[in-house]
Amino acid sequence: xxxxxxxxxxxxxxxxxxxxxxxxxxxxxxxxxxxxxxxxxxxxxxxxxxxxxxxxxxxxxxxxxxxxxxxxxxxxxxxxxxxxxxxxxxxxxxxxxxxxxxxxxxxxxxxxxxxxxxxxxxxxxxxxxxxxxxxxxxxxxxxxxxxxxxxxxxxxxxxxxxxxxxxxxxxxxxxxxxxxxxxxxxxxxxxxxxxxxxxxxxxxxxxxxxxxxxxxxxxxxxxxxxxxxxxxxxxxxxxxxxxxxxxxxxxxxxxxxxxxxxxxxxxxxxxxxxxxxxxxxxxxxxxxxxxxxxxxxxxxxxxxxxxxxxxxxxxxxxxxxxxxxxxxxxxxxxxxxxxxxxxxxxxxxxxxxxxxxxxxxxxxxxxxxxxxxxxxxxxxxxxxxxxxxxxxxxxxxxxxxxxxxxxxxxxxxxxxxxxxxxxxxxxxxxxxxxxxxxxxxxxxxxxxxxxxxxxxxxxxxxxxxxxxxxxxxxxxxxxxxxxxxxxxxxxxxxxxxxxxxxxxxxxxxx
Length: 510
Description:
- The protein is of the alpha/beta class and 510 residues long.
- The protein has three domains: 12-94, no CATH class; 98-206 and 235-393 and 500-504, TIM Barrel (Alpha-Beta Barrel), CATH 3.20.20.70; 404-487, no CATH class.
- Helices cover 45% and strands 17% of the residues.
- Helix 9 packs across helix 10 (255-283).
- The chain is globular and about 85 Å long.
């Protein structure tokens, strides 16, 4: 990571005084962004036309600068640049800390997906307080479809926020829940530093419900004889033993269990190998891309036996991963706390940790991880702080909370739009929302509206309908308010993400 040249940076007051001689209609400067490089002063401001990169310096030096923008002559001269794709690439070249990098080798990591392109500043302010590495740009193809963005735009928004806040410790960009090689290529071409490969569409769930007498016949019909022989050899007549501070684990597979797992996973294993080989070809023998595999969006919890089978089969194919997202027992619903028996979760989670420590020391990844405060201490303790937590919708909900605080009338309209869209939105998510338990907004005074963001049913309603709200006529007013109150939004996010890291037991910085 290239360090910024050391020379005196003007104070905020001095920068304001310089800018006042130019016809900018600026509304705000971002003091932390200002830095000197190659005899020029770079920084971020907000004008009535949005955020801009400004560059101050001597006229001759400015002409040599590569950023595309309009030069305004004075002493010193000023170049005003839009946050275009071309300028984003130049930013990453001149200031490498703004480019996404691999981060999962760091013990504690958190994905703070920003669906709006406005949340990263608040996320940065939270993660700066802890020994953690962030994945700021984290979006799935589905999320991009609902927000009307693409991976290049998602990464650009993160990069400019990183520059704005002068965050130089490294951040990741995750192409989340990718289900095809074409989707992986799309994300890699856009510049992501992490791939989350979703295997849900490559799994044969019927394998676990077939009658015993049918399993053997299907195995003969569907599995190549050579592969069958190897897989049976890997698992039969073997005991897999694991030891740890909370007890030991022993796993043995019967022939029928092996065959069921092969039927479940054989297409997924081929697919994982194909993608892994593609990443090696693109980035080198040891991929420079963090590689996560996700099996969390499946109809049943991932048993330790299923976890172990997948990892042994992948390792046999030469596939190495940085993190795995199983489907844990209990319910990890969107935007609310864990539902299930905490003791049972602790027991199963410990077994998953034992397997992950033994077969590559990869991380366990907690998807739909926002707001699971009741089990965060257990997750942090049992994993010994080696964990990846994914959040996204919780930052959207804090944006909605801001609207309820600052513009109650707009919130009421958003709430009604969410109710109208809930039926369609609920087809895409597993939630148990009871709309009848959400108080009608007409029965609430303005000061009571923010309290809805603390109720599970209202949180889920607002969480899963975000795509419909962002495509409605309310979008303009929503973004206008968030931009106008960006410091308030950043503070809400800072407190909320800080609470996640605190409950997980992530060590604070000195």
